Amino acid sequence: MFYCTLRDLVLYLHKDENGFRRNQIGGDNLHNAIRIHHALATKATDYTKKQYVFRLQTADQAEYLFQTSDSKELQSWIDTINFVCASFSAPPLEAAVGSQKKFQRPLLPCSHTKLNLREQLSDHEERVMRLESMLEEHRRCPPEKGAKSQVVQNYKEKEVYLNYELKRYRTYTYILRTKLSQYLEMGAAMSATMGAGACPPGSLAEVDEGLQPMAAAQQPPGLPTTDLEQPKSSPTSAVNRCSFTVVHIIYYPDQHKTLPKEMSGMK
After folding, report:
1. Which PROSITE patterns does the UniProt record give (predicted)?
2. pLDDT 10s digits, 17-32
């Protein structure tokens, strides 16, 4: 079992409860840290060995399976990770231009976005439409019969990439829309209690007022845990904590590092 701390766009895995409760970030915790920028969390419905397992796919194509304690915690972790990724991940860089025909994935920056939530949602929606158009165009031009295996392989890789990116950005769009609608409802309730001096329900100013504190604090939604605190050393860093089990690692991107024994032994 690992103890987890989610801070901004990094998931820290603690080996013991002491490091988890003290919020120690360093040493082995840095080695076990997982960057979640541009990541996607989904239910691992195809994994039947254990219950309440979610899959985390990261920007470097690594894939992790995590087991939680119950269905409520499972959904909470999925929503939290996807909301943090959708809110803070910077827009991807444009794809490289060159003479090579081999498909290459665009670079995904690990920095924080400079957009607020509404601008971030708008950017995600534009990318969904762009990816739908790219996928449709890609499917209209399949490889000819008898094409070289490399050409077919490149075609398949690009189709897999476009499908995954479309799924990821649709998830981002959905969860940001949900959060923004919740802020609108919250703002409308606050306007009713504050009286005439408040902004009209559903106004843009009201939404901005609701988003500014959230963007400043970078606060992800809460998890059903009993140990949740704000670190004194970094008042703008949001921390969510929970314990769960790493049940499987499909691919570890850094070939120059060895897996911790606790990770490599779980299959």
Report:
1. PH_DOMAIN
2. 665 555 555 555 566 7
| Alpha helices (H) in 89-116, listed in sequence order | none
How many folded domains does the chain comprise? Answer: 1
* φ and ψ at residue 41, rounded to 5 degrees: -110, 130
Tokens coding 231: 């670190």
Terminal-residue alpha carbon distance, the chain: 13
Nearest to 39 by CA among 18, 64, 66, 15: 64
Tell me if 238 sits within 8 A of 8, measured CB to CB: yes
191: domain CATH number is: 2.30.29.30
Separation CA 258–CA 253 (nearest Å)? 11
Type of residue numbered 73:
E
Token digits for 125? 């929606």
What range does the domain containing 226 cover? 2-264
Cβ-Cβ contacts under 8 Å for 32 (sequence gap 6 or more): 2, 12, 13, 14, 15, 260, 263
Give 192-209 pLDDT, tens digit per residue: 776 544 444 444 334 444
